Amino acid sequence: MNGYALRDDQGRALNRLLNRIAGQMEAEALLISDIGGNILAQEIRKEDESIQTIAALAAGSFAATRELARMIGEPEFLSVFHRGREQSIFMQSLASQFLVVAIVQKTTAQGLVKLCLEKIAPELEVILTATAGQSLADIAADTKLELADDDDDLFDEPDPDAQE
To answer: Whole domain around residue 22: which residue ranges?
Structure first.
């Protein structure tokens, strides 16, 4: 599994789309990961240290459902919904190499989540498919680094008498 590298503009575009749709579907968390569970973009209502673990487990769960699909003659399942007592998780494949994962409250209708993701999936897929073949080295080579004017003393020797 190759990692995916996003340019700044791609990351901002993904986050902007997630922000827009998260409110419409009343999501507690909405994230995009590659199929290895590496988060590329996220919109979370409250900070949660377990979000990376959730992404990795969701990717594993989705991989298992892909195998189930193959065993019954389907190339893949496009989405999976796990309903819980208080929260539910909806996972949908994007461009075959990515997942969008939505965590919603029990009061959120499954149809609303599906409708919102169907509405935004084409825009997400355009951005995600553009990442194919991008490497961190390519992105770094295209990135200009500039120092602000007030950074003139960046490489000056520290003042030994200065107090920290």
So the answer is: 8-133
